[in-house]
Specification:
Order of helices and strands: EHHEHEHEHEEEEH
Distance between the termini: 30 Å
Helix content: 25-40%
Strand order of the largest sheet: 3-4-2-1-7-8
Radius of gyration: 18 Å
Strand content: 15-25%
Structural class: alpha/beta
CATH architecture of the domain at 11-67 and 130-237: 3-Layer(aba) Sandwich
Largest sheet: 6 strands, parallel
Shape: globular
CATH topology of the domain at 11-67 and 130-237: Undecaprenyl pyrophosphate synthetase
Number of strands: 8
CATH class of the domain at 11-67 and 130-237: Alpha Beta
């Protein structure tokens, strides 16, 4: 595939899964699995820009991942910081806007400061959007959105107001502007991929995923190659999406 867009996908979300299982299968430390996984994720991100995917969303750390060991969490936070630095170089070159999805109040202060800085520096970039889910959970996002809606004086009837239609078929409820993907041109993923064979979304973009196509990739993230990803794009692009209609 080239920059001449040969697919109809504007937004792809990927649940990054399987790093620990990959490491265990190879009798390697878990931390090596996380590093290899993020290396694979960076390659996929670069390929997405090559084939003109406007919005890419990675779910890297959930609200439930805090239940892991402190050693693993500390390593992950350091790795996220390093990866963000690498990705920022690409963002500057290729006009990528970086947006954090999730909570900032529980992340390490240094990481939060770095995220805020990158969001500010890339806020005017328009060619691509990269959403990074850190301390993100779908239910948590909706609850935070409701809290903001109420705080701003929203009324019950306002929840049912619409503002256009997704793919000219599915209504955009105005409430979407209180979610973490607010003001994005393509907030609803056309496709969600989960690596490592688990067949559930676990709360990934619970509101936005209502009509997403799903693909459950058997390979763990470190083994998820650009070639495998390209085959999924081809497969999903051939699907007929009806959004409840004809």
């Amino acid at each position: 595939m080239t920059k001449n867009k040969k697919h109809s996908l504007n937004h792809i979300g990927i649940i990054l899964d399987g790093n620990r299982r990959w490491a265990r299968a190879k009798k390697l430390p878990t931390l090596i699995g996380h590093r290899k996984g993020l290396e694979a994720a960076l390659k996929i991100a670069r390929f997405c820009r090559k084939i003109n995917i406007h919005t890419l969303t990675y779910w890297a750390f959930s609200t439930e991942n805090w239940n892991r060991s402190q050693i693993e969490i500390s390593y992950l936070m350091k790795l996220f910081s390093e990866t963000i630095d690498q990705y920022f170089k690409d963002a500057q070159k290729e006009d990528v806007r970086i947006i954090h999805l999730g909570r900032k109040d529980r992340l390490p202060k240094k990481l939060v400061n770095k995220i805020r800085e990158l969001e500010e520096k890339t806020k005017n970039n328009q060619t691509y959007i990269f959403n990074l889910g850190l301390d993100y959970g779908g239910q948590d996002e909706i609850l935070r959105a409701i809290a903001s809606f109420v705080k701003e004086g929203g009324q019950i009837e306002d929840l049912f107001k619409t503002n256009g239609k997704y793919q000219h078929k599915y209504p955009y409820y105005s409430f979407k502007e209180y979610l973490d993907t607010k003001k994005q041109p393509y907030p609803y993923p056309d496709l969600i991929i989960r690596t490592s064979g688990e067949q559930r979304l676990s709360g990934f973009l619970s509101w936005q995923s209502v009509y997403s196509e799903l693909f459950f990739e058997k390979s763990p993230l470190p083994d998820f190659t650009v070639e495998k990803f390209a085959k999924i794009i081809k497969n999903v692009s051939a699907r007929k999406r009806r959004f409840g209609g004809n």
